[in-house]
Amino acid sequence: MEIWDALKSRHKAIADRPLLALFEDVDRADAFSIQLQDMRFDYSKTNIDRDTRADLIKLAETTGVSAKRDAMFSGARINETEDRAVLHTALRNLDGAPVIVEGVDVMPGVRNTLTRMRSFADQVRDSGVTDVVNIGIGGSDLGPAMAVAALHPYHDGPRCHFVSNVDGAHIADTLEGLDAKTTLVIVASKTFTTIETMTNARTAKAWMLDHGGDPKTQFAALSTAEDKTEAFGIDPDRVFGFEDWVGGRYSMWGPIGLSLMIAIGPKGFDAFLRGGQAMDRHFQVAEPLENMPIMLSLVGIWHNQICGHATRAVLPYDQRLRYLPDYFQQLEMESNGKSVQMNGADADTHTGPVVWGAAGTNGQHAFYQLIHQGTRVIPCEFMIAANGHEPELAHHHTLLIANCLAQSEALMRGRSLTEARKLMQAKGLTGSELERQARHRVFPGNRPSTTLMYPRLDPYTLGQIIALYEHRVFVEGVILGINSFDQWGVELGKELATSLQPIVEGETPATGKDSSTSALVNYIHTHRE
Ligand code: F6P
């Protein structure tokens, strides 16, 4: 496509331009920022100039982003490889218009489930339950686990724990010390077949029975497979269902968010939904230039597909967002880690980037060295609140903000050899030693970053952030021509694990396995006690 070539030529022409030079445009900071309510997204510290931005917007237009967006919101079956609509947005369409799938408005069903969740959550919060254990994995774990940690200041319900790994250590460590008589176990699984979740659920059931609890009244299930939840022995009254048009990694807005609702209460959960809904409305109506999800996507496309930066770091300066990078890894990498386009052709460019990161400032003392002085450029996505939740510790928050701002400034500015020499001279070094030491203190600079700022990390703001990134992934997927809503790439490993289970047990021989796998199985057989 011509527009891709145009963007690549632009990149060639400006690759060595210093980022700081762009700030000769005195309006740059505002012109390359988007304000939505109290949230500000600043992408001015990237090498995108006005012409490049116009071309990026043209790319979004040429690839049909707005039409696809409208199709998604309208309930069209845009997840073509699974023949499903994509309507997680309906879960937060609190007082919005009807959403029609196959001629039927899905909103009454959504509202009915939400009402049931609210009354169940209130009941749990009032009933003396001390601990909630959510058993789920991937999209049935990462969202609520991340959000419960993020919204700790709003947490006034029972303690919440999350068990995901099939490693027995996870459930053993979690259940240790819990009272089986006052614990609620929520089995969260869209399909109710996921081996990790079902294994953990059975273990939790046995634990509860052994320790005087009653799984009949202390288990609940969140799933699209209500026949399977019943077969597991969970009363239909304690099952919260959802439809196949909610993808696992997009599901925390509905029943999968039950543990969050129990933690922060139905009102807090409503605020979370409202934040997501506000981002949806903005995404649907704002012009591309003013559209936060679209511009965030275009920045992503620019860095990954055009500039060739294969990874991006998510760097929330908020200890309570420490699980956000994990959550984004599934959201982004399971959605856009594809090699085949929607039309069956091979992808003609790299698809989703490697997403990683950690909460600031901890990352600064771990991997930022490579971000500043390594040979690879890693676009960084900073986020920070203007306020913390600890007024008595406001000086901590000042330091946190200063660190966040210092990093994006340092990445952009860098430090030249001349500046490094001066520093070494000031330390009294001379001659070849000065030269040698100075070189190690050079920062190349020109390393791009974006910054997302908001007044405070409350439920509404978290809803905005998550919906922002969901739409970002969607827009990038449309531009790349891939389906962001399937995940066939997780299947092969699951199938092989099933076939390996009896081999590991020693019930069947490792016939047909490669010699490495056979030897590794042998090692296990020799060493397993
Ligand atoms: O990893 C594959 C996957 O299907 C994810 O997409 C999903 O979030 C996770 O497994 C859990 O699936 P389920 O909710 O059906 O147990």
TrEMBL record:
Which reactions fall under this protein's catalytic activity? Answer: alpha-D-glucose 6-phosphate = beta-D-fructose 6-phosphate
Where does this polypeptide localize?
Cytoplasm
State the similarity comment.
Answer: Belongs to the GPI family.
The protein's annotated pathway: Carbohydrate degradation; glycolysis; D-glyceraldehyde 3-phosphate and glycerone phosphate from D-glucose: step 2/4; Carbohydrate biosynthesis; gluconeogenesis
Q: Which organism is it from?
A: Sulfitobacter aestuariivivens
User: What name is this protein filed under?
Assistant: Glucose-6-phosphate isomerase
Which gene underlies this protein?
pgi
UniProt keywords, alphabetically:
Cytoplasm, Gluconeogenesis, Glycolysis, Isomerase
> Would you name any one GO CC term?
cytosol
Q: Does the keyword Cytoplasm apply?
A: yes
Q: Where is the active site?
A: 334 (proton donor), 365, 494
InterPro entries attached here?
G6P_Isomerase (IPR001672), G6P_Isomerase_C (IPR023096), Phosphoglucose_isomerase_CS (IPR018189), SIS_dom_sf (IPR046348), SIS_PGI_1 (IPR035476), SIS_PGI_2 (IPR035482)
In the record, biological process GO terms are: gluconeogenesis; glucose 6-phosphate metabolic process; glycolytic process
Question: Entry's Pfam families?
Answer: PGI
GO terms (molecular function) for this protein are: carbohydrate derivative binding; glucose-6-phosphate isomerase activity; monosaccharide binding
The record's listing under PROSITE patterns reads: P_GLUCOSE_ISOMERASE_1, P_GLUCOSE_ISOMERASE_2, P_GLUCOSE_ISOMERASE_3
Chief location: cytoplasm
Instruction: State which Enzyme Commission number(s) the record gives.
Output: 5.3.1.9
